[in-house]
């Protein structure tokens, strides 16, 4: 089944509340997906800086002193903010590749959940409200956020199998549905140089969009193309550093509700997810049409 | 007038109270506040009472309704008035997928738009939509009437049996075995009655076109395989 929420702020004054609003939305979708949860938060982007979100099965051992070890390896300063099993490593953008290589050497058990200038990704197995609490989502701020509660169908219940999937810088995708041609598509994307960490169909959709954007398409155009190349049931919500997109397959079995006010655009698998948002009573609320791309950019 | 605030009272208590009503009850008017998209609000009613739900509801509102009038002052999620037997359900806003699915009787009025699969497998229910309906509406519809004042999406009436479909706007495409049919006097009369029952006074029956079954797919015939 799965539950999706997304919030794209237009009003700067709401940015401090992004995490609290997203946590509230995510909590309403627990019943749609109680096995794992995750969220991407696009927050304070600094020019020339990169953020790398890390996850570790043994955070105490892996994250202890990690910043110093990385600094020594790349001969530059980095910052590490630990949140439970995750940590966000900030470094100079020009050194991001070197930092990633060093991380692979120093702590091979640590996984990279996402990279970019603004994105931070947190996801774990567990009941969604517990997962949100573990990472203190409520106190996060930023410009937009996307969340997911998972009821696993296509691959194992693991941290890596949770959504969002991030396959390119500042990109993420959450999915409700199931793709029927993901194996063929995965093979063809691997042939074109993409790499995968799971057997999950949603990761293929994320990688597909990354691959299209690498070809020079913007997110809206990549989503248009996905309607031609992806087969199966899907409602996707996707984020980029400055954009927020929604698309449903032509059959559109998977539920979706959009709401827009002067202050935000919000997405929910159900209206329940939107009920607590400020000004929702006067928002334009509608069900996105099948095979139609909705896309906002700041 | 009884008022139940779902921000305070559990949904189960609301439905238990409504299920306890029977013919002859004095509690004929109910107000439900703060539904906030909850599922299964006012389902399974079987008494001639009126329930006003003030705000948007989630899945399956007023499902299996008998006798009661349920009025949603807001939008409704998937499966609104699913398998209704009798009575009346009115949605003042939009309705999501498969509104009125498998309904056997009664009247469902959607004042906004209905999305895909409206009236799927309808079996006697009357549905009137003031706005548009989405794709695959009235799929395998067996009896009853679907009246649409706006436009219909793709594959209207796919594999339809005997239901009558009246559409005032455009039809994006017709599904397998669904054809346009002549509006004879009896259809104008039937439609006028449905419009009146739904409280629609600003349109005329001659603005509608009628669609129904070509009846080719009742029994499998290899010569009709292309029609599926």
UniProtKB/TrEMBL annotation, chain A:
InterPro entries with a match to the protein in the record: GATase_2_dom (IPR017932), Ntn_hydrolases_N (IPR029055)
Segments crossing the lipid bilayer: none
Domain Glutamine amidotransferase type-2: 2-298
PROSITE patterns registered for this protein in UniProt: GATASE_TYPE_2
SUPFAM superfamilies, per database record: N-terminal nucleophile aminohydrolases (Ntn hydrolases)
Pfam families hit by this protein: GATase_6
Entry annotated with the keyword Transferase: yes
GO molecular function: transferase activity
Keywords recorded for this protein, A-Z: Glutamine amidotransferase, Transferase
The name this protein goes by in its record: Glutamine amidotransferase
Organism, scientific name: Hyphomicrobium nitrativorans NL23
Lineage: Bacteria, Pseudomonadati, Pseudomonadota, Alphaproteobacteria, Hyphomicrobiales
From TrEMBL, chain B:
One Gene Ontology molecular-function label: oxidoreductase activity
InterPro entries from the UniProt entry: Glu_synth_asu_C_sf, Glu_synth_lsu_3
SUPFAM superfamilies: Alpha subunit of glutamate synthase, C-terminal domain
Domain of life: Bacteria
UniProt-recorded name of the protein: Protein glxC
Organism this protein belongs to: Hyphomicrobium nitrativorans NL23
């Amino acid at each position: 089944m799965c539950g999706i929420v997304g919030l794209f702020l237009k009003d700067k004054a709401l940015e401090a509340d992004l995490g609290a609003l997203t946590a509230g939305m995510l909590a309403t979708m627990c019943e749609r997906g109680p096995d794992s949860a995750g969220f991407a938060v696009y927050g304070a982007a600094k020019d020339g800086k990169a953020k790398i979100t890390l996850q570790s099965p043994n955070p105490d051992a892996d994250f202890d002193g990690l910043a110093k070890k990385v600094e020594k390896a790349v001969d530059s300063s980095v910052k590490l903010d630990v949140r439970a099993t995750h940590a966000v490593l900030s470094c100079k953008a020009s050194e991001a590749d070197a930092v990633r290589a060093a991380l692979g050497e120093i702590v091979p058990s640590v996984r990279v959940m996402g990279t970019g200038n603004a994105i931070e990704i947190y996801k774990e197995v567990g009941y969604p409200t517990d997962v949100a609490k573990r990472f203190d989502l409520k106190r996060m701020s930023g410009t937009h956020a996307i969340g997911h509660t998972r009821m696993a169908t296509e691959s194992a219940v693991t941290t890596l199998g949770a959504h969002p999937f991030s396959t390119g810088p500042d990109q993420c995708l959450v999915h409700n549905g199931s793709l029927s041609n993901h194996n063929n598509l995965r093979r063809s994307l691997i042939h074109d140089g993409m790499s995968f960490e799971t057997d999950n169909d949603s990761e293929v959709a994320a990688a597909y969009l990354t691959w299209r954007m690498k070809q020079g398409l913007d997110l809206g155009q990549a989503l248009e193309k996905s309607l031609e190349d992806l087969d199966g049931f899907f409602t996707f919500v996707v984020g980029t550093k400055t954009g927020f997109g929604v698309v449903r397959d032509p059959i559109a079995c998977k539920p979706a509700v959009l709401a827009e006010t002067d202050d935000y655009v919000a997405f929910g698998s159900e209206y329940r997810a939107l009920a607590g948002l400020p000004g929702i009573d006067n928002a334009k609320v509608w069900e996105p049409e099948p095979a139609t791309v909705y896309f906002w950019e700041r | 007038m009884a008022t139940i605030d779902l921000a305070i009272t559990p949904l189960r208590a609301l439905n238990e109270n409504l299920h306890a009503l029977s013919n002859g009850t004095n509690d004929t008017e109910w107000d439900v506040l703060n539904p906030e998209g909850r599922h299964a609000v006012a389902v399974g009613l079987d008494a001639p009472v009126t329930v006003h739900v003030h705000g948007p509801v989630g899945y399956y509102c007023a499902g299996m309704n008998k006798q009661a009038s349920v009025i949603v002052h807001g939008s409704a999620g998937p499966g609104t008035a699913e398998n209704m037997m009798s009575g009346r359900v009115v949605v003042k806003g939009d309705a999501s997928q498969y509104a009125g699915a498998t309904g056997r009787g009664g009247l469902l009025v959607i004042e906004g738009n209905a999305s895909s699969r409206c009236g799927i497998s309808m079996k006697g229910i009357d549905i009137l939509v003031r706005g548009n309906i989405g794709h695959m509406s009235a799929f395998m519809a067996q009896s009853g009437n679907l009246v649409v004042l706006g436009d219909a999406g793709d594959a209207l009436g796919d594999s339809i049996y005997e239901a009558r479909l009246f559409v005032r706007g455009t039809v994006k495409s017709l599904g397998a075995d669904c054809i346009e049919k002549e509006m004879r006097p009896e259809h104008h009369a039937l439609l006028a009655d449905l419009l009146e029952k739904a409280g629609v006074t600003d349109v005329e029956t001659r603005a509608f076109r009628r669609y129904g079954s070509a009846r080719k797919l009742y029994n499998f015939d290899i010569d009709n395989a292309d029609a599926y």
